[in-house]
């Protein structure tokens, strides 16, 4: 049973995600946090398979928390949740180690699909993200990384 950590600074959003998950008993909620610092600590303590995390939070935001959690546990799948679909935000999300990028406007309809895809080691991007952004990010992710030289 995959364990999920929910991270959002708005309790209303956390409760909404929980209400979606209640219909799917094969998913276990292992904790919730309201900021990136708490998310990092909880991820270290609870070892979730998936973290559903807001990007915009006070203090340590979702991108920086994703980077920290991914470095600490590269097997953890992180779905970043946001209102914004800017190309830089999508790129930065995946560069930080995210496995998914879910727009809040799509969350009710797409959350379970996103979870299934990332748990199966796939990548997920909301259908409302413009195709050219998806193609650019997908192309960048497939490109081999060059080693830096001093």
| Number of discrete domains | 1
Largest sheet: 6 strands, parallel
H/I helix tally: 6
What integer value in Å does the Rg equal? 15 Å
- Work out the helicity level: 40-55%
Low-confidence stretches: 145-150
CATH architectural label: 3-Layer(aba) Sandwich
Kindly report how far apart the N and C termini lie.
45 Å
Based on Cα principal axes, name the global outline: globular
CATH topology: Rossmann fold
The counted number of beta strands is: 6
Question: What is the beta-strand fraction?
Answer: 15-25%
Task: Identify the CATH class.
Answer: Alpha Beta
Q: Which secondary-structure class do the elements indicate? A: alpha/beta
What distinguishing features does this structure have?
single chain; about 150 residues; alpha/beta; six-stranded parallel sheet
